[in-house]
Amino acid sequence: MPEAVTPAMPRPALYLVDASLYVFRAWHSMPDQFHDADGWPTNAVHGFARFVLELLEQERPRHITIAFDEALDSCFRNRLYPAYKANRDPAPEELKRQFTHCKALCAALGLNVLAHSEYEADDLIGSALHHARPRGFRGMIVSADKDMSQLLMEHDEQWDFARGQRWGMAGVKARHGVEAAQIADYLALTGDAVDNIPGVTGIGAKSAAILLAHFGSLDILLTRIDEVGFLRMRGAAQMAVRLREQREHALLWRQLATIALDAPVDGAEPDFVRAGVDAGMLEALSDSLRFGPMTRRRLREAAGLPG
Known about the structure:
The protein is α/β, with parallel strands linked by helices. The chain has two domains: 13-176 and 260-303, Rossmann fold (3-Layer(aba) Sandwich); 180-257, DNA polymerase, domain 1 (Orthogonal Bundle), CATH 1.10.150. It has helices at 19-29, 43-59, 76-80, 93-108, 121-132, 172-176, 183-190, 205-215, 218-223, 236-245, 247-257, 279-288, 293-303, and strands spanning 13-18, 63-67, 112-114, 138-142, 157-160, 165-168. Residues 10-275 form the 5'-3' exonuclease domain. InterPro entries: 5-3_exonucl_a-hlix_arch_N, 5-3_exonuclease, 5-3_exonuclease_C_sf, DNA_polI_H3TH, FEN, HhH2, PIN-like_dom_sf. Keywords: DNA-binding, Hydrolase, Nuclease.
């Protein structure tokens, strides 16, 4: 258990990495010239390994967890709304294999890996942070996903690693037009095309931001719909009509957009401390994935192994 944190002491950081985002980014950006010993492509693994190495070398995190998406069509949100993320094509077998390798690589490096068939990576990250906060930790969420900003509290930060941008709770409004605590309400109104959440018809980003600035929350907005028509904004009367008609839908969209804080995060090390390295597994992965000498050297250095 970490020592009690006093005002004079900085809070220890828990690094929470949205792995799937960086695996997909590597899959789309890395050249298709990398293959394992069996001839399967490994471009996503190579790109993801570079990202993980840069993070470890730059930050040297003591407390870290890497969350992967496994709930592709078995997430609890699919039971609430079967069309959730139905606009996404299933991952090809070549990519599924690489996800397995990426998880194995993280485990070999002693990084806590979280994955669950009913919860998404967002939920696992939110639940890990929710678990760690009372123990004195602040969150460092490594993800560019705007959904994650709803998790930010006073001492937390979100980090778009690729762009080198970091922001805290106070910086969310400048990026998205609403406060961190309003992100799920905002997505309920505007929808989220990435996740196939429709939103309320006719309400876009600017309108949603104005509504939430005026009313504070979706709940208050829905109890005071009669006032919407009198707001000085284009199409206000029609918005009021749509909100009455789609009230239950808006509540469902918010439920889909809200990150769960009760996903199981057991199986990780206490306080998500970085565990010991599995040198044998690391060497075997380096061989089977055909990592080059530079990547092998960096992996051994990141693992604290002799060169």
